[in-house]
Amino acid sequence: MQTTESAGFPASRVSRAVRGILGWRSAFLVLLAVPALGPVGVILAQSFDTSGLGEPFRFGVGAWRAVLGAPETLSTFTTSLLLTVRVPAGLAIGFAIAWAVVRLRVPGHQVFEYLCWFAYFLPTVPMVSGWVLLMDRDFGLLNAAVAGLGLPAPFDIRSPGGIVWVHLSLQTVPLLTILMIPALRLLDRTPEDAALVAGARPARVLGRVVLPLVAPAILLAGLASWIKALEAFEVEQLLGERVASFVVSTRIYGMVSSEPPRMAEAMALSMIFLLLLLGLGLLYSRALRWRGQGAANRGEGSGGARPSYGTLLRRSVSVAVGLYLAITILLPFGMLVMGSFMKLFGFFALDQVWTTSNWSRVLGSASFGASLRATLTLGLATALPGALLFGLIAAGMARLRGPQAAAASVLVWLPWAFPGIILGVAILEVSLTFPGMRMLHGTIAPLILGLLIRDLPIGVHVMRNALAETDSTMADAARISGAGWLRTFLRISLPLQMPALTLVFLILFAGAIRDVGTILLVAPPGFQTLSLQTFNYISNSQFEMATVLGTIVALLALAVSVLAHLLGRRLGSVRSAVGTRA
Amino acid sequence: MNTDRFGLIGRRALGAASACLLLLGAIPALAWPDSPSDEWQALVEAATAEGGVTVLANANLGDDFIAAFSADTGVPITLSVGEHGEGRARFYRETETGQATFDAFIGGRSSYELADKGLLTAIAPLLILPEVTDGANWRDGAMPWIDPAKTYLPMPIGYVSAFVLINKDVIDPASVRVWDDLLSPDLAGRIAMHDPTVPGGTGAGASVSLFLAEAKGQAYLETLYGTQFGETTADYRQLVDWVARGTYPVALGTRALDIERYRAEGVDNLAVLNMQDVPGYISGGTSIMAIPASAPNKAAAQVFANWFLSRSGQTAFARAARAPSFRTDVTGGDWPEYLNPEPGRVYINQYDQNWAETVEPALRTVLDDVLSK
Amino acid sequence: MSTGSILRIEALGKGFAAPRGRVEVLHGVDLTVAAGEFLSILGPSGAGKSTLLRLVAGLEAPDTGRIVLAGTTVADAARRLNLPPDRRGLGMVFQSGGVWPHMSVRDNVSFPLVARARALGLRHAEIAAKTDEALRLVSMAALAGRRAGELSGGEKQRVALARAVVAAPRIVLLDEPLASLDANLREQMRGLLRDLQDRLGLTFVQVSHDQVDALSMSHRVAVMAAGRIVQIGRPEDIYRRPASAFVATFVGEGSVVELEGRRLLLRPEDIGFAAAAPTAGEPGWIAGQVISAAYLGARRRLVVGCTLGALTVDVSAGAEVAAGQACALRIAPGMGIALK
User: Which of A337, A449, B20, C58: disulfide with C85, CB 3.0–4.6 Å?
Assistant: First the structure.
C-alpha cells in the first residue's frame, strides 16, 4: 500500500514556530546557558582588563599575577576550606533530626520540622546580632553567666569557632535537615521493621539499615551544603575581622570596596574561586543524575507509616531535638527581639537599659515604608514569574534525552556555585557594559535577574522532583488525546504542580526579601529593601535599628515559613493522590 | 521626601506635574534662599521638571536632611546609601562607564583620579548662590577644595581627628597629655586601635597611623603597634564599647558619632583628649561632594550642589554628621567641642590632593613596614 | 473486523542508554494490525511490550524501522520522522488510568474533543453530545460532575476508556489496563472492552503480561520475548500450537516431559488421573504419588511424581486427594505439544 506522509492533525502555530528555529531543544539549551555561563564569561573577561580608570578595555594578566602572587590568596582559600568543617557536623546533626522527625516520629515532630523551615527563611544578618548578644567575648550573656560562676568566659562569637557555630545553628543544620527529610520520608519502612523484628536495637537499625539506604541522599545534601559553605559571605564579613585571614568571599568584597575598586583583581580571584566551585557543582549535578538512575528505595511502606520504635526512645529523642532547636533557633531569635528594645545594644550596665524608641524611630521613618514596599515589590516581582519560569524549565528538561539532558542538568546547577557577591558584581558589569542591558540599569530588572539566577538550581530542582513524582502518564495521556505541548503544560502539568509551584514561589519570595549580597551593587537609587537597610544599619554599627528591622523581616519569614511548611506536607499528600511513577 | 517609589518614569511625571503647578503659582513660594535670582528660580524649575535629584551618601544623613532639602528647594530628592564599600564601587563603575544613575555623591576623599580623568563635572562653575561663593562665609576666606584646581571636589566639613578616647574611671586623663604618654609601660597592651588595613585605605586607623608617622616618626609607630596596641577592629563602635566597658581603656581612631551616642544614653565614663603637642589632623569625613559627568539630572545636581554648600544645607549636614562645617555661619550645632579646629592653628589636611599625592605615599610605605613586623 | 491493515510496523528497533552501556529493547519488530481487530501483545516483563506501544503512540522515537498508521507514515527512523502523539489520532488507556484528578469526569472525557475541536470542526454542542455518549457507554454518566481524583480504581479506568474512545480514534492503545484491578473488576472490564469493540468496531492493541486478559479478549495474540515477536496467531493457536518451548511454557501451564524420544508439553487438563495405583498390566497408566494438592476453587491442582517427573495435573474440585496418596496418570496417545 502506498503510504502518505500527511501532517496528521495540524500542529499549533506556536509549535510550528518553535520547531522551525533549529529545534527547540537547542534553543532551550542556549537559553539555559545564558544565566549559567553568562556571569562566568563576564567575570573572566573583566579579570583580564588592565586598563586604568575610564580607559577602554586593555588585555593583560596583571591582575592574575597580583592575585596568584599574593600570600593572602592561599591563606584565604585555606580559611574558607577550614570553616567548612561545619558541613560534616551539620550532616550528622541534620540527619539525626531528620531521622527523629520522619522515622521515629517523635512527639512534636511537626513542630521540629516547621522550626527548620523557619530557620531556613530567617534573615541571617540580623540573627547574627542575636548570637552576638549571647556570645560576645565582652558582653555576651552566656559569658556573663559563666563568669558569674567564677569561670573564664568560654565563648567568642567573633572567632572561627563562633563563625562555625553561627552557620551551623542558623543555616547548615536547618538546610541539611530540610534536604534529608524527603529522602527519609520516601524510604520503605519494611527493612526497618524487619530489622526490629529480628531483634536489632534502634541504634543498629539506624547504622546498618537506614544509613546505608539513604547514604546517597546524605552525600548529595552534604555536597550541596559544602558548596554553599565555601561561598559564605555575610557572617564572615560581620564576625570575621579578628580571624587572621579573610575568607575568599570577604577578600573579594574588600577588593571591590577599595578606593579605587580593584575590580580586575576581584574578578581574577573570583574566577579561581568559581573554577573550584563549578567543579564541585559539576560533581553535584553528576551525582544527582547517578542517583536518579538508581533505585529510589521507595515502597508501599513509605510516607506516613513509621516503623515501630519504643516510646521511651521516642520521648528521649524528642527532648534532645527540642532542646537543640530551641537553643540554636529560638534563643538567638529571642535575643534579636530583645536587642531591639535596648538603648545601647549589648549594654546592660545603664540606668535605663530598655526603650521602645528604636521601634518608634524605625516605624516612623519615611524610609521604612519605602523599604517595606520595595521588599514586597521585589519579592513578588521575583517570585511570580520565577515560579512559572522554573516550572517551564523543569517541564522542558523532562523532555530532553541523552547528552542534551546531561548538559541541561549541569547548566541548571552551575549557578548554585555562584557566591552572591560575585553574582552581584557580574550583574553590575553586565548591566553597565552590554548594550542590550544598559537600558535596564537603574531599574529593578537586574535585581530580579540576579535573584532568579541565584535560585535557579533550587527552584528547578523542586519542580523537577515534583514532576518526577507525578505519574508521567498524566502528560502522556494529554498528548495522546490531542493536546500540544503548551496546552498540556497549562491544563495538566501546571495545575497538578500547583503545590510545588507555590512552594517555589515562597522560596523565591523569601530569598528575595532576605538577599543582600546579590542585590547590593545593582539596587537602583532609592530602592532599598529591608534587608539592605538592615545591612546598612549594621555596617554603620546602628545595631539597635538593625535589630528592629531584623525582627520585622523575621516575622515576615515566619509567615512565609508557615505556608511553606504546610505546602511541603501537602506536596506529600498530592503525591499519593496522583500516584507515584509506575 | 523619598519619591522614588515609582522609578524614573514616575519621578519624571511627578516632576513635570510639580513644575506645572509651580508655574501656575499653585505651590507657595519657598522661603529659601533670600531674594532668589531669576537664574536660580529657572534652575529650580528645571530641576523640578527633571524629576528631582538622586544622591549617594552616608546612611546616617537620615530623614531630617532629606526634609531640609525638600523644604528649602521644593525639588524631590532620593537619598541612596552609597558611601560604603559597595556603594563606592558602584559610584566608581557608573562614573567610569558614563552611566551614572545618581546625580551627586557625598563621601570620603576617593575621587581624585576621576576628576583628573575628566569623569566628573566641574562644580565651581555651577555655584551661583552668593552665600556659597562669598568667601566671607567660609573660614580662612574661601571654601575648601581638595583638588588643586579647586573645581571638582569641595570639602565643606572639617574636624579635628586623632583624638584619644579614654575611660576616665580607669585612666587618669591628666596622665595622657602628649603623644609620648601613650608609650607608657602602664598602657602596654591596653590601647585599642581602628584597623588600618580596612579596604579603602582611608579609615580612621590608617589615617591616624599616617598622621603619627608624619608627626612622630616610624619608631614611634613601631612602638605603638609593637607593645602598646592590644587589638584592632574595623568596627568603630566596638572601639567605643571597649573603652566604655574598660576592656581596653584607651582607643585611637574612634568616631565622634559613636562616642556621643554612648554619652547620650548615659555612659558617662568616656573622656576625649586632644593631645597638646600635635593636636591632630583635619579630616573632611564623608563630606566630599562629587558630581559625575554623566549625571542624569544636571539641573537638579546643580541645585543640590548649591544648597549643600549653603548655610541651610551645611546646617542640616553638620547636624546629621555631627561635625563642624567650614562655614562661619554654621554654629551652635550639637557636635562636640573637641572636633572644632583651634582658630589660627595649622593642621595637616589629609584630604588635600597635594598631600595625598606627594606626602602620603612615603607614609604608607612606613606604615606597611610597621605592619609587616 | 475488516481485512485492511490499520497499523503496520516494519523492522522497528529501539534502545536506551543505561549506566553500563546501551540496552537494545526492540530488535527489528514486524507487525501488522487489521482494522477492527483486537490484538494483544503478551510477554514477560522486559520483553519490550510497553516500549512497542509507546513507539506506536509517538511517546518515543524509533532508532530503526518505521510505523505506518492508516496509510500514513508516522515514524521513520531513516528520515528522522516521528509525528508527535497529539497528531496521530490515537486513544490510550494506561495501567494507572492517567485520568487527571483535578478535572471532573466530564472534562476528562471531553478533553480529546476540545483539544482537536478545530481540526475536527466540532462545536460545543457536538462535543457535549459525544462526551455524554462516551460516558453512557462506560456507565459513568451519573458521575459526570465528580472530580476524577475522588473515583475508585475501576471507575477511573472506565473514565480513561471513555476518554480514549470519545474522539473515534484510529486505534485504541491499552497499556496493561487491567493490571491494577482486582479479579472481579478485571472481569467486568474485560466484558466492557469486548462490548465496546463489538459496538464501535474500533481497533484495539493491548499490552499485557496476563494470559487470561490476552487470550479471552483478542482476535490475535502476539507473544514477545527479548524484544522480538516470537509467535503471532489466534489464541487457540498460541495455546495449542506454540511455536517454541518459550511460548509453550509462558502461555498456559504444563509439564515438559521426554516421552518416546520426543520432548512434549503436557497441559494439566490433558493428563488423566485416577486416585489409586494402576493395576498391573493396565495399559496407558503410569503409577505415581501425589506430592502436593492445592484447592483452587473451581478445580484442584495436583503435582504428581512419576517416572516422567513431577507433572501438574488438574482434577475436579470435589476429588478427595491428599499429598502422599498413590495414584495413576494416563497420557493418551497424541496428547501433548511437541517442543522443538
Answer: C58
Strands (E), A412-552: none
Looking at the fold, whether C153 and C199 belong to one and the same domain comes out as yes
Least confident of A335-344, A460-469, B45-54, B296-305: A460-469
Residue numbers of B between 259 and 318 with CB closer than 8 Å to A? 261-262, 265-267
Query: In which band, very low, low, confident or very high, does the pLDDT at A515 lie, cut at 50, 70 and 90?
Result: confident
Chosen for mutation from C87, C174, C207 (greatest number of chain A CBs closer than 10 Å) is C87
By residue range, what is the domain housing residue C60? 5-246
Domains of chain B, CATH where assigned: 8-158+284-339 (3.40.190.10), 162-280+347-371 (3.40.190.10)
Contact assignment for B236 to A366 by CB distance below 8 Å? no
On whether any CB of chain B is under 8 Å from the CB of A544, the answer is no
Residues C282 and C191 in one domain: no
Q: What is the end-to-end Cα distance of chain C in Å, rounded?
A: 33
Q: Where are the domains of chain A?
A: 50-578
Residues C34 and C164 in one domain: yes
Chains in touch with A (3+ beta-carbon pairs under 8 Å) read: B, C
ipTM attached to this prediction: 0.82
Q: Does A582 touch chain C (CB under 8 A)?
A: yes
Average pLDDT on B324-350 reads 87
| Tens-level pLDDT at each residue, chain C (340 residues) | 556 899 999 999 999 877 778 899 999 999 999 999 999 999 998 899 999 999 999 988 999 999 999 999 999 999 999 998 888 999 999 887 788 988 899 999 999 999 888 888 999 999 999 999 999 999 999 999 999 989 998 999 999 999 999 999 999 999 999 988 888 888 889 999 998 888 899 999 999 988 889 999 999 999 999 999 999 999 999 998 888 888 988 888 888 888 888 888 888 888 889 888 776 556 778 889 999 999 988 889 999 999 989 999 999 888 888 899 999 998 877 788 887 6
Domain endpoint, select from C246, C273, C306: C246
- Whole-angstrom CA distances from A548 to A169, A363, A519 are 21, 9, 21
Please check whether residues C54 and C203 belong to one and the same domain: yes
CATH node for A50-578: 1.10.3720.10
The chain C residue lying nearest A470, using CA atoms, is C98
pLDDT tens per residue, range B350-365: 888 889 889 999 999 9
Q: Which of A241, A250, A252, A259 to mutate to test the interface with B (most CBs of B within 10 A)?
A: A259
The residues in A 129-168 lying below 8 A from B, measured between CB atoms, are 138-139
Which chain A residue has the Cα nearest residue C151? Answer: A577
Among B80, B91, B93, B202, the strongest candidate for a mutation testing the A interface, having the largest count of A CBs within 10 A, is B93
> How many angstroms away from the CA of A575 is the closest CA of chain C?
11
The CATH number covering residue C124 comes to 3.40.50.300
C337 membership: H or E segment, kind and range: strand C337-338
CATH code, C303: 2.40.50.100
Residue of B287, B279, B314, B262 whose CA lies nearest to B65: B314
Contacting subunits of B (3+ beta carbon pairs below 8 A): A
Q: Which of residues 105-124 of B touch A (CB under 8 A)?
A: 108, 110, 113-114, 117-119
> In chain A, which residues have their Cβ closer than 8 Å to the Cβ of B7?
443-444, 524
